[in-house]
Each structure stands twice: as C-alpha cells, then as structure tokens.
UniProtKB/TrEMBL annotation:
Keyword Ribonucleoprotein: no
EC numbers, comma separated: 1.12.1.2
PANTHER family, per database record: NADH-QUINONE OXIDOREDUCTASE, E SUBUNIT (PTHR43342), POTENTIAL NAD-REDUCING HYDROGENASE SUBUNIT (PTHR43342:SF2)
Cofactor-binding details, from the entry: Binds 1 [2Fe-2S] cluster.
Position of the signal peptide: none
Broadest EC class assigned to this enzyme: oxidoreductase
Protein name per its UniProtKB record: D-reducing hydrogenase subunit HoxE
Keyword terms: 2Fe-2S, Homeobox, Iron, Iron-sulfur, Metal-binding, Oxidoreductase
Keyword Transport among record annotations: no
Cofactor(s) listed in the protein's UniProt record: [2Fe-2S] cluster
Protein family according to the UniProt entry: Belongs to the complex I 24 kDa subunit family.
Annotated GO MF terms: 2 iron, 2 sulfur cluster binding; DNA binding; hydrogen dehydrogenase activity; metal ion binding
Binding site for [2Fe-2S] cluster: 90, 95, 131, 135
Taxonomic lineage: Bacteria, Bacillati, Bacillota, Clostridia, Eubacteriales
Amino acid sequence: MPNVKTVVPYAGTEEQEERLREVIRTHKGQPGATMPVLQAAQEIFGYLPEEVQIMVAEGLDIPLTEVYGVASFYAQFTLNPKGKYQISLCLGTACYVKGASDILEAVQQRLGIKPGSITPDGKFSLDACRCIGACGLAPVMMINNDVYGRLTVDQVGSILDKYE
C-alpha cells in the first residue's frame, strides 16, 4: 500500500459558507469565540478543512495559528473529512492485547487507506481510537453505530462487504 494520504478537495457550498459567516458575525468580538465558532463550522461542513479555518480566522480577526491550535488540540474536531461509513477501530489495552493491530492491518489492506484517511470514493473513513467502551468484546470495531466485537482478521472482509 503506498504511503500517500488521500486528499479530498474542499467542496463547501455557498450556502454552507453563508451559514458560517452568520455564526462568525454573532460571535465576533466575544471572548472565547473560537470554540463555539469551530463547533458550528464542523457541524456545517462535517470537518474543518484549511479553507474553513481561514474563514474563521479572518472572520474573527485572529491568527490562523490560533484557530489551527484549537482545531488540532481538541478531539471533538477533525481536520479530515469522514466517509459515509466511519470505521473506528479500538486500539485500547484490552483490544490491543487481543489482536486489534492485526484487525487494523486487515482493514487498511482491504480499503487501501491508513487511519485518519478516507477512501477516494468517500465511502469509508478509518480512525483508530483508544476506547469504544466495550472492553468485554475486545477486539472491537464500530462502523457508524454498528458494533462488531470479538473480531478476527478473517471476519473483516465479510463485515466490510455489508457496506459496499
């Protein structure tokens, strides 16, 4: 698998941008405006691409580095688009000791992407996380709200087939 991150071009609409400009107008000049504006921006766009971060920085008249710092620090924000099917694979202790790294490798091989990436068709995104909260089912993977536990490598293909 090539070590290339899939780059999805910015695809914001004029309507989305206008909604963001309205949010910025209502928060401009308020202390601590960055967080609520970024939360609204992510709700509008689904993630925080560079173009959106620039709009926020310019609109709030703050440095882009401040916007990026907040967006990259807090786990609630994502700088990458998410697929129609969002795969989260737990790499927490219980899952890891029961073979989660092998499951992750199988998903990566099948989809041709690494954690933090999206397939070129936008169908799947892959993230590794620290805990899903289902340690008794380790190793665990979620696809959107569907939980798959006690996984083995040979189950990966048939699970992903359900979503293709």
